[in-house]
Amino acid sequence: MKSGMFADIPVDVGVVYEGERIRKGDMHAELGGPDVPHKFELLRVKPPEQVEDGKVTVVGPDFKDMPEGTKTPFAILVEVSGKDLEEEMEGVFERRLHYFTNWVEGFMHLNQRNTIWCRVSKKSVQRGLTLKHLGMVIIRLYHSECPIIEKVQVTFYTDPSQVEKLYPEALKVYEARDARARGLKDEEVDVFYGCTLCQSFAPTHVCVITPQRYANCGAISWFDGRAASKIDPKGPIYEVKIGKCLDPFKGEWEGANESVKAKSLGAVTRVQLYTAFGYPHTSCGCFEAIAFYIPEVDGLGIVHRDFKGPAVNGVPFSTMADSTAGGRQVDGFHGLSFEYMRSSKFLQADGGWRRVVWIPKEAKERVKDFIPKDVVDKIATEEDAKNIEELKAFLKARNHPIVEPSEELKKLGVKGLKGVEAEEAAAAPPAEAEEVPAGEVPVMAPTLTVGVPGAGGMEFEIILKNAKIFAERMIIRKVEKKKGKGEGQ
Predict the structure, then answer these.
(1) DSSP one-letter string for 323-336
(2) Which residues pair with 27 in a beta bridge?
């Protein structure tokens, strides 16, 4: 609820609003999000003379000037100063924007960096909420929650031309931060870091951050975790004692398991950091991309948040995200960051990049330099394959490692495309059976006929409407009814 700190803000401010979802029907405006190409949030440490404490600037229209239903490019620039602040702390404080803005009634903030997706509700705008008010809340919370910060100023950009102009500079800053974190190996440290910042939207999610496995959101490195835990030891980013290594190849540590179990209140008890199967790292909702299993080729696909349309398996990012997020461990679906894709530990227990068969062109370009040279041109994009059959043809034409797996991959349990086809051939129906290709069978509402005990032999029909039933194939086979005793005599 409102407190004295926010008495002049026209809506309530407090932790009770964390996790608030603003649906399209309740939305006044959408800032950033998947439908606009340019959006970002950035925090920079500046000399004190360059920061005017408490200043909020809006470049472009404020909420009240946006027609209802507006979708606009959006940028948040926070500039801070303090005698003990260092540039290496920027990512830590920047991630707090997700936390602080979600305290505001009627304002929703998802994701991070250049994937932010914000909405403001009709009700809050009608009550007078403006971007200037949002900036005031951000400044006061930084002062309250992060005493090391002495001065804060905030600038919001809703002018599309200004957001587009500043966007490349933001990308350069992110890349420089990520590059600093490369080189250190997981085996060289005795401490990992945990993060629960996303638990307002994913209650059982706990990020385990190591030198070679970035946070799912792509915004917190191991070095960021170290800085955050020193600044606020009792905060949402904290130290994890590694303890005994239970499986160095799959990436399982006793201390990480204990941390995840405690912070998820027992919902998750084990986590393996280098695999998408078994006990994969939980997925929040702020992940930058999803690795997904493609059983038809025994390979992995990757789709990122900004990819439009369905992935090669026919499913769009949004649908896979709904199935993957929430802090769950979903076998074969794995939320991850772009920086983790650049790691030598990237899904190593599953075959790493030699198991990946499809990735959107834009995403591939971003990580191209980190894909093995002998594999990079064998991984399909949406330009090469738009469905499974096209994917199979491409993989065979390029002789992708998944077609006939090496002994190294076979040791990981990879059977490969030809192995899948051999299993299908062995399980083929008898000659008299007719196989009907998917899409050629008229689909009717499934009907079940059931008898009810005690109903005098009466039968009832149960019709399933709006049911979704998935099958790799449908086989129609003539079956002769067996004669019971006395029948046909």
Answers:
(1) HH-SSB-BTTEEEE
(2) 121
Query: Pairing state of beta strands 151-157 and 56-59?
Result: parallel
Residue with tokens 């979708």: 71
**List of domains in the chain:** 4-181 (3.30.1650.10), 183-287+325-350 (3.40.970.20)
**Token digits of residue 475:** 């086989």
Task: Give me the residue label for tokens 């031309």.
Answer: 161
Q: How far apart are CA 225 and CA 211, in angstroms?
A: 10
**368 is written with which tokens?**
């191209």
Give the HSE-up count for residue 236: Cα atoms under 13 Å, Cβ half-sphere: 19
Structure tokens at 198: 């996303």
Model's pTM, two decimal places?
0.69
Q: How far apart are CA 77 and CA 169, in angstroms?
A: 12
Decide: 244 and 253 in contact? Cβ < 8 Å: yes
Q: How far is CA 398 from the centre of its chain?
A: 30
CB 25 within 8 A of CB 121: no
What is d(CA 127, CA 452) in angstroms, rounded to the nearest whole number?
56
How far is C-alpha 349 from the chain's CA centre? 20
- Tens-digit pLDDT profile for the chain (489 aa)? 455 789 899 999 998 888 788 999 999 999 999 889 999 999 999 999 999 999 999 999 999 999 999 999 999 999 999 998 888 889 889 989 998 999 999 999 988 899 999 999 999 999 999 999 999 999 999 999 888 999 999 999 999 999 999 999 999 999 888 888 787 899 999 999 999 988 877 889 999 999 999 999 888 889 888 888 888 888 889 999 999 999 999 999 999 999 999 999 999 999 999 999 999 999 887 899 999 999 999 999 999 988 989 999 999 998 998 888 888 898 999 899 999 999 999 999 999 999 999 999 999 999 999 999 999 999 999 999 999 999 999 999 999 999 999 999 999 999 999 999 998 888 876 555 555 454 444 444 444 444 434 444 444 455 554 555 555 555 555 445 444 444 443
Q: Whole-angstrom Cα distance, residue 253 to residue 264? A: 16
CB contact set of 215 (below 8 Å; sequence gap of 6+) = 195, 207, 209, 221, 337
Maximum distance among all Cα pairs of the chain, rounded to whole angstroms: 104
Q: Tokens representing 141?
A: 């919370």
